[in-house]
């Protein structure tokens, strides 16, 4: 089987690529990534020499390029993760999110349909999405697969749009699709603009840790490898045409999470108890900040037998250890060294 994984140089995509390359040596895995600021081939150094792995540098918005690679490699299936993924950036530049998340997704759908039309049923387009499409919860309740879409940020609006297009291609053209909507991920290789890696970096450097508003917003955190395992299960065992919600059953108010992180790092760095909490700095709230996300994953758990493999305390501890050990990775992504390298490396390709 030849599988095209898009966005494989990013945070979640790199864990999905590694899992598939190592677990399924009989598959050919193609990683298509534009290497935006969020894409980093250092995330995949350990597998780049594997025979069943090929990296393709390209933009999903570029329809001619996407057509070329489908013609050349004749993919059997797509797992689509490439996206602009940061809410704060979407507030500054919504159109970038429309291009990649909406137009890029429709390009992939069009091309898959074109190349797969002779025997559609032998193929699969798996679209990876977010729980943010459901909008925000109050104090109670969980997002289920039946919750009505109510996106409230440019990021979630663009992901909701892409989800609608994927379902439209299933209903209108019979394209075999699967979707999943996952809660907030954390773990190794997370770009330090998102809450947990940003806080780890700043605590390490003894810089202020910015908490938006009063820190009362709630997120449901899932270890990234458990998301990758869920994608593997859904890809192989999920029903065509179905959607699966993925979550950690692990809700945390931002302020409680940051306090736990400060204490965990104080212990690991041998700092006095309570030392890093002094770095917590309340800052202006995010515009339109969704109050609470929480996922009901019972469909995935009951039907496909998936469950998280680590507790939050274990996952957070592994994550902090990874950032403390991988100082070069962190230095490169925060200094922009890797961008200069890619510009030089790929200018003529
Ligand atoms: P990320 O920002 O870390 O990685 C995105 C990757 O896509 C990068 O490697 C980037 O170079 C690539 N990319 C961006 N634009 C591209 C384009 N036009 N063409 C080709 N490649 C392009 O994102 P992530 O956090 O790994 O998220 C991956 C997917 O999972 C996204 O679809 C996101 O919506 C979804 N998701 C993320 C989370 C989360 O907590 N991070 C939760 C649920 C769902
Ligand atoms: P983030 O990691 O950006 O994920 P998302 O917005 O997709 O949930 O943010 C997680 C939560 O942390 C969210 O409620 C916003 C908040 N936050 C801060 O308080 N400070 C920060 O510096 C960042 C980046 C986020």
- The number of distinct β-strands equals 13
**Mean pLDDT, all residues:** 96
Shape label: globular
Strand arrangement in the largest pleated sheet: 3-2-1-4-5-6-11
Task: Give an overview in words.
The protein is of the alpha/beta class. It has two domains: 2-186 and 221-246, NAD(P)-binding Rossmann-like Domain (Rossmann fold), CATH 3.40.50; 195-218 and 251-290 and 311-346, UDP-galactose 4-epimerase, domain 1 (Alpha-Beta Complex). The protein has twelve helices and 13 strands. The strands form four sheets. The chain has a seven-stranded parallel sheet with strand order 3-2-1-4-5-6-11, sandwiched between helices. The chain has a two-stranded parallel ribbon with strand order 7-10. Nicotinamide-adenine-dinucleotide (NAD) is lined by residues 6-7, 9-13, 33-36, 38-39, 59-61, 81-85, 100, 104, 128-130, 159, 182, 184-185, 191.
Q: Nutshell version of this structure?
A:
The chain is an alpha/beta fold and 349 residues long. It is built from 12 helices and 13 strands.
Secondary-structure blueprint of this entry?
Blueprint: E1 2-6, H1 11-23, E2 28-33, E3 53-57, H2 63-73, E4 77-80, H3 87-92, H4 94-116, E5 124-130, H5 154-173, E6 177-182, E7 185-186, H6 195-205, E8 209-212, E9 218-220, E10 222-223, H7 224-237, E11 243-246, E12 251-253, H8 254-269, E13 280-283, H9 298-304, H10 312-325, H11 327-335, H12 337-346
Helix pairs in contact: 1-7, 2-4, 4-5, 6-8, 8-10
Nicotinamide-adenine-dinucleotide (NAD) binds at residues 6-7, 9-13, 33-36, 38-39, 59-61, 81-85, 100, 104, 128-130, 159, 182, 184-185, 191.
